[in-house]
Design a protein that fits this description.
The protein is built from 5 helices and 2 strands, in the order αββαααα. It is mainly alpha-helical.
Length: 171
């Protein structure tokens, strides 16, 4: 079925049924050194006919796998902070705030991954007869929190790139 693919996507990995798709006109150059466009996880356009996934289930799966997209971007930010603290993208006058923010996000992502692992255990326990509505129920808090954290990073770095001439941020 699609449960393995869904769990992989929730963990920030694409597979055969769920793939990374580019989102045009949205650059997150602070995350991607090669200035690639942003991406989201989505079901492939043409699903195998052997899978009986209704259109309603497809919509629900696509809503759920957006969490994997947020997870990946937030993880990239954490790695950027921890592996390269001298990164020119990170303002030096906020050197204390960004690592603390990364630590807080890391705690949220740790709770999220714990929940994904719990979901995997539940799916296996019921022999893969696990409704999508239960995924949404278990992940409901993260469906609000991860997009909000992702938007927060966008806003912080958006201000960073709209600087005036003297290295201070424009409010």
């Amino acid at each position: 079925m699609y449960h393995h693919e869904l769990l992989l996507a929730l963990s920030g990995c694409s597979g055969d049924l769920i793939e990374k798709q580019s989102v045009p006109f949205r650059s997150r150059s602070y995350l991607f050194e090669d200035n690639k466009n942003d991406y989201i996880y989505q079901l492939v356009e043409h699903l195998p006919s052997t899978l009986n996934i209704s259109q309603a289930e497809q919509i629900l799966i696509n809503e759920l796998v957006l969490l994997g997209s947020h997870y990946s971007r937030l993880s990239t930010f954490i790695n950027m902070i921890y592996t390269n603290p001298q990164n020119p993208v990170i303002p030096q006058y906020h050197s204390l705030y960004y690592p603390v923010l990364a630590q807080g996000i890391e705690e949220v992502l740790s709770a999220y991954i714990d929940m994904v692992i719990h979901l995997e255990e539940e799916v296996v326990k019921v022999n893969f007869n696990f409704p999508l509505s239960k995924y949404k129920y278990y992940l409901r808090h993260f469906m609000l929190l991860l997009p909000a954290l992702d938007t927060l990073l966008d806003r912080l770095f958006e201000k960073r790139y709209r600087r005036n001439g003297n290295d201070s941020l424009i409010a």
